[in-house]
Structure prediction request, 353 residues.
Amino acid sequence: MWVPAAGLMLGILIGLFVPLSIPAWLTKYTSVATLAALDTAIGGVRAGLENKFSLAVFTTGFTFNTVIATLLVYLGDSLGIDLYLAAILVFGVRVFNNTTTIRRVLLDRFWAKSPIGMRRE
Amino acid sequence: MNRLRSWTLPIGLVAVVTGFMLSTQFRTQAQLQPPTPSRRITQMAQVLQASERRRMALEGEITILKQQLKDIQGEAPPAIETMEGQMASGLLPVTGPGIRLVLDDSSSKPPKPDGVQAAVRAEDLLKVVNELWAAGAEAIAINDQRIIAQTDISDAGSALLINRQRVASPFQIQAIGPSASLQKALTLKGGVLEYLQFFGIHATISKLPAIEIPAYTGRVEFHHARPMENGP
Prediction:
């Protein structure tokens, strides 16, 4: 279960040492894409913990969310509206919801033991 | 355990990608705008206001003292000695501690893929010179052309004209004055050098203990202006 966490650490380390610099005019897009990726990853962890994980939903969700979020930002730039705010709001809210659910599931699974040690499923 | 395995791997892969994107984004953002905590901004604003008040109080004192001097002497203050006058107008070569800034645009890269290659223009040099004067420079020369009050810096095709002489890249700007202030004024956040470097122009600053700045070699003639008889 800690494979995703280890994967996150690994990705962060790689990113710190790869001298890739995002051009200044791209940063707004990549930041929203990053948020979308983070939301998908956390959503996937939640689905997995609830035993509702579906690989198809997960992968299509990842690509779609990132692409559509970037398109939304681009559309906002073309129209002169700060549409990226909508993307940030939605993904931020989802991150919070998913982490709350993960916390509850973990507490249920590892804390709610009866006094004689039997796990309540 | 089997069901656990099936999701950890794809999520792990996505987590690697996410982590990579996160740290790259952090690094780029930190380079672009190191965040200034708002408390520090307020603090610095207060220091600025206090300094402004003090400056205005001192200016008031200057006016009072000048009046007292006038009353005692009964006439305008004596003219500056000839040497200082000549130094002030850039007619003497001078030496002293200061900074040397070299601007090179020969290998600049455009900031966007479809941008044009940036070249140092007259307005860029004017900005640099302005910052240096404001920071306390006492003598400035660009490619050995002394900058005096009557100096113009203008674009002329692919080169620049300073004191009506053609100068070309790389531009070596020397300034005598308080080295630390001069360097800080140029490297301010959001300042001239940051602006130029954004367009890929190479800028190198060095603080030197003994900079030599040549005298102005042109002529300064006054056909229209003449000294006022009775003082301001």
In short: The two ends of chain B are 94 Å apart (CA to CA).
